[in-house]
């Protein structure tokens, strides 16, 4: 899963509209600073360190700090890939999306962005009740999160919609984890983003 995320994320970018800042293989400069990854050995973590990050290092960071440490591995296995991918993309918001979904499914769970015994138990119960729908429901909630983010932050719309007006990277990425029958058609997508101008 981590290898797939690295492949999806791509190489080095430093987009001024991206709050993540300098990023390589999906690992942001903020993550590297938090982990103290001074790859150049000059006593500070900056864009030069991000540029030096290897694919193997990114995979290890994701496995340790975005899958094992946040306890995604303790969720139902079917949810691993989509929650893990979203955690790399949005941190604790990936868990909040799941927690809100669990609440909508009748589970009592705090929406705090942390996976603990309450979230693990609620996810297991909800998955047992809807094993054929839970992954799609999470993916749709994830797609809606991206839409709401772009609604509120015009600078982020380029990640949700291409210049040509089609589905942007955020939406395509969410839909990779949703059954094709729940993908938005081109017309449905155009209608959803029409207010963006």
TrEMBL record:
It comes from Pseudoponticoccus marisrubri. InterPro entries: Lysozyme-like_dom_sf, Peptidoglycan-bd_3, TtsA-like_GH18_dom. This is Peptidoglycan-binding protein. Residues 1-24 are annotated as: Disordered. Residues 3-91 form the TtsA-like Glycoside hydrolase family domain. The lineage of its organism: Bacteria, Pseudomonadati, Pseudomonadota, Alphaproteobacteria, Rhodobacterales. Residues 93-175 form the Peptidoglycan binding domain. Pfam families: Glyco_hydro_108, PG_binding_3. Signal peptide: none annotated. NCBIfam families: holin_dep_muram.
